[in-house]
Every structure is written in C-alpha cells, then in structure tokens.
C-alpha cells in the first residue's frame, strides 16, 4: 500500500505536489548559487613565495548560508522519499536498475559528502571538497524526476527510445555532410586566394579542414553564428549547397519522430481515461431480443436469447443472430455504450487487468 501511494504520482496529491515543489526549489537554489550576489570572498592569499614569476592570487569563496540551508531541507526530503521507496519497493532489483532512481542517489550523495568533509582541515579533504563542489552540477539531473509527474515528459522519453534508428540515421547523414562540405569549403577558399597568399591565411578563416567541421555543423543546422563565413565566390556556392543539404537532411527523419510522439501521446491519454470510464454507472443488461456485446480481446462468450457470439475485429463489431440480419450501425452504437461498462461480459478479469 505504501509503495503504491509513493510510486504513483497520482496516488497522493500531497506527495506529488510536495515532490514537485522541492524539485523546483532545489533547481532554483542550484542556479542562484552561481550568482555573484550570493557568493562572497572570505580569504585572499597572495602566493608571493611561489616559484612562478607572476603567481595569481588564490581566493576562497563562501556561498550564502541561506541557500545552503534551503538545499539541506530539499536533500532531506529527497532522502526520506528515496528511503521510503527503496524500503517498500516490491522488486528491489528493478528499483536498482531504474535510471531515475540512480539519478536520485547520485544527486543526493554529494551533499552528505560535502557536509562530512567540511569540518576537516587536511589538504586531501580540501581537495576532495573542491571536487565535490564541482560535482554539484549533478543536482540539475533532478529535473528528470519531473517525468514521474508529467505525462508529456514520459511520452517524450518513449518517443526518443522508439526513434533511435531515425536519430542514428540523422547522425550518419550529418557526419557525412560535415565531412564533405568541410573539405569543399577548405579547397574552395584556397582557390579564391590571392596570388601572393598561397596558403589563404590572410583573407579567410578556413585554414584547415578540422576548422571547417565547425562551420559545416553550424551551417547544416541553419544556426549560423557568423564567426566563420566564406569570402570567395566559390566558397559562397559551397555554403549555399551546405545549407540546402542540411535542411533536407534534418527534414527527412522528423515526420517519423513526430508520428511516434503522436502515437505514444494518444496511448497515454487513452490509458488515463480508461480507469475513469470504468468507475461510471454500469447500465442495466439489455432486455428482450437484443444481444449482449463483449470485448473481443477477452475472447468471452455471453449468454443471450438471440445473440450467439460478439467479436471485435479491426475496430468493427460483427453481430451474428439467428435471423441472419446484420445491423452494423446499430451494433457500433451499442458497442460504444457497453464497451467499458458491461460487467456481465467482463467479470473480475477485466476489472483486475492492468491498464495498457
């Protein structure tokens, strides 16, 4: 019972809103800690005895204690949440293999290590403490915890996993295009070089092919920072071809990815609405000569005075009765009314079945 309440964000509104609140507060605190208004220099050391000719001064910066206290409260909540979930988890192995649970543990651990080493004065402890301050960036990974509370983020994750082949194809196309156009822009700029500048180092920034890789990536993605651009007519032709090739390359796998997102989103919305429909009032059984309609994927047969067996195939309801007459329109109308609510056909099997 505790696991169902804790694992499902909709099992308890209080836990869901509290978890969302602490996630947002923790991320906000992480961002504010980098602002100079919340940092002050408490110690400045001039390394005059250093062997270096012009040693740089060493600074020791302290973050505003208020932010540290706020972060401590957030970490305390995440720790309690993590311990409750790992304690009452029915399958410990699946819990350990979950990516979100690994992120939770990695984001919590540095805070306790930093607190434990802050009171030590040894050089090794200070070095480890400095490393932990750098590793603070893992706290930003808590943003992925929001996937537990928002269906759209979970749908996005499923879409990215389902579109792995399309992303791989896109990367291959981009890599080939970058290699080809970086080589072309390098030689195109050299062709337009001045006679007294055979290496083309004075009038262009494309001094070698690896530098052209950056330009090709920026151009093919239609980003265009403007830090590098061709200055010869031949280079401009290559640049135009590179931009057109980039647009066509990126546009090819996008429809497949969009279709995957639409499919998973529709399934997620249907899964959310399904339990609500089951809780509605169950209508009375159809009387007289009207048949009773069943859900086809359960392969159940319903007793009726006229109807023999109802099957759902391809989204259509086929009714066979002793009179030999078929009314598709009337069948679909009644099927839409009784698909989720006819308890005489479903029984306990459908009521206890998993959503999906």
UniProtKB/TrEMBL annotation:
GO annotations under biological process?
action potential
Positions of transmembrane segments: 12-30, 95-113, 167-188, 209-226, 238-267
Cellular location of this protein? Answer: Membrane
GO CC terms: axon terminus; dendrite membrane; neuronal cell body membrane; postsynaptic membrane; presynaptic membrane; voltage-gated potassium channel complex
Q: Which GO terms describe its molecular function?
A: delayed rectifier potassium channel activity
InterPro entries reported for this sequence? Ion_trans_dom, K_chnl_volt-dep_Kv, VG_K_chnl, Volt_channel_dom_sf
Keywords assigned by UniProt, alphabetized? Ion channel, Ion transport, Membrane, Potassium, Potassium channel, Potassium transport, Transmembrane, Transmembrane helix, Transport, Voltage-gated channel
Task: Provide the membrane topology annotation.
Answer: Multi-pass membrane protein
- For this UniProt entry, what is the primary localization, expressed as one broad class? membrane
Pfam families per record: Ion_trans (PF00520)
Q: Does the keyword Transport apply?
A: yes
Every copy of the Ion transport domain together lies at 14-266
Q: Which domain of life is it from?
A: Eukaryota
PANTHER family reported in the protein's UniProt record: POTASSIUM VOLTAGE-GATED CHANNEL SUBFAMILY C MEMBER 2, VOLTAGE-GATED POTASSIUM CHANNEL
Please report the name of this protein according to its UniProt entry.
Potassium voltage-gated channel, Shaw-related subfamily, member 2
Q: Which organism is it from?
A: Xiphophorus couchianus (Monterrey platyfish)
Its organism's taxonomic lineage begins at:
Eukaryota, Metazoa, Chordata, Craniata, Vertebrata
